[in-house]
Give the backbone structure.
Amino acid sequence: MTTLDVPQTGLAAARLRLALTRLARTLRRESQSKLTASQVSALATVEEFGAMRISTLATHEAMDPSVATRVVAGLETLGLFERTSDPEDRRASLVNLSEVGQRELAALWNQRTLELDARLERLSSKERDSLEAALPALEKLSRDE
């Protein structure tokens, strides 16, 4: 590993970042889904927060609105997103998961959970317990608070 000129907590952060990046990449690679990481993330955001404008999705995803528009267009083409009129402003539209999108995302989560569970089984019970104990802290890190 490359030596970093950071305090000890920085080294832990670097190790955690690398481990999470590699794990996420491995789970995506093992997945049978043809969706991009941006598409999966957009689906998950709309699943979590409900129907929203594309500009709101762009904010949640920290992406340029033009990129969000392309992601949404791709998901619409695949039948995973559907648009409805915004009841607060009929000139605007909201995107939401279609029934197909809900099924696709549920199947993807199930598949990735099974793949991760198989990886967890390779760990000792002590290592699994340590990961379980760290979950509240990891969940906290994953939120914008």
In short: Helices lie at 8-30, 37-49, 54-61, 65-77, 99-121, 125-141.
